[in-house]
Amino acid sequence: MNDSQRIEELLHYFRMEQKEFAEMCGILPDTISNIKRCKQGISKKVLNKILLAFPTVNRYWLLDGEGEMLKSSTEQSIVGNNNIQGGDNYMVGSNNNDVPDLVKVLLAEKDKLLYEKDERIKEKDERIEELKEIIRELKSK
Asked: Fewer CB under 10 Å: which end of the chain, C or N?
């Protein structure tokens, strides 16, 4: 499986459009497009941004297709077990240099949740406007 196919599988799994996925990762949509069209591979920078936005994704699978797409439950981001990003130099508590990595992961998760909340608010605002228009039409009749 090549980089393009792995990105496509992520989009399908997370039920996201290319643009939405890119925004969640902090990547330009053109970058995802170029990977999907095999014009470029997944760079280290892109890899890290995807892993920060989606910490359950297996780093090795995304990098070269090894293993499963998602980390096993024991590898996933379990702060209570002092394990962030499956242990790939993200062991919390081993020294103070790891704190920024934990903060990055938590901020990425917060950003993802805020983005999803903003989208839901936007959808509800649009629905409110539709209902207001219906009310205006009914009043004018």
From this structure: C
CA 26 – CA 122 distance, rounded (Å) = 20
Query: Domain map of the chain by residue range?
Result: 3-140
Task: Give the model confidence (pLDDT) of 8-48 as tens digits.
Answer: 999 998 888 999 999 989 999 999 999 999 999 999 999 99
Distances (CA, A) of 140 to 122, 126, 127, 136: 27, 21, 20, 6
Cβ neighbour number for residue 35 with a 10 Å cutoff: 22
Q: Selecting from 1.10.10.1590, 1.10.260.40, 3.40.50.720, 3.40.1550.10, what CATH number does the domain 3-140 have?
A: 1.10.260.40
The helix/strand/coil state of 78 is: strand
| Among 59, 60, 55, 70, CA closest to 107 | 55
* Distance (Å) of CA 23 to CA 3, 4, 14, 64: 19, 18, 14, 23
Three-state DSSP class for residue 47: helix
CA 66 to chain centroid, in Å, comes to: 20
